[in-house]
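input
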Amino acid sequence: MVDSPSAGATSTPRPGLRARKKAATMRHIQDEALRLFEVRGFDTVSIEQVAEAALVSPSTVYRYFGTKEGLVLHDEYDEQIRDQLGHRLAQGIDLADAVSRVLDDIWTDHFGHDQEMVVLRTRLCFEVPSIQGAMSLVINQEVDAIAAEVARSGRCNFATARVLASGVFWAFMAVLRNWHDQGYATDLRAGIEEVIAWLPALEKAVS
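output
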């Protein structure tokens, strides 16, 4: 359920009240979980302890995140990125430009205001083996979701879109890993933009 945009609007529809309430609850639970993981260590914290800290039931945590690893891997911006990318591709915008514009839309909130959370989640993803293993499954799911948006735009079929999305996603992960290994001191956006600059050549190569 989404709030309908005004006539002639070019922005993506805003999520409805129910979706916003769910997102707020998930954000609260994730914030509490990350706080506990940072203080006590990921392996020593239980779902029950997260639920107690967030003032929700353990079943709510499982329903929203599935596993303890999911508390780290969930990214509240993933759905927004998919929706905005699909919206821009439907307008006929070039793929690389569409990806860059979507990043522009979320960068300040995600990597600016939430930088501490991003750094902590990145560190856990690359330093905790169980999270690193679960991350591969999540990335493959996101690859297929993005590939479906690209294919829906009519640029290419799903199989080709999956190759494109896989190349971009795993390249982004390499950039994140470099950022982590270099103490988060490098320019993350510049590294991501370098990957985006490869997109036209990659799209041409697989088409």
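quick obs: The two ends are 35 Å apart (CA to CA).
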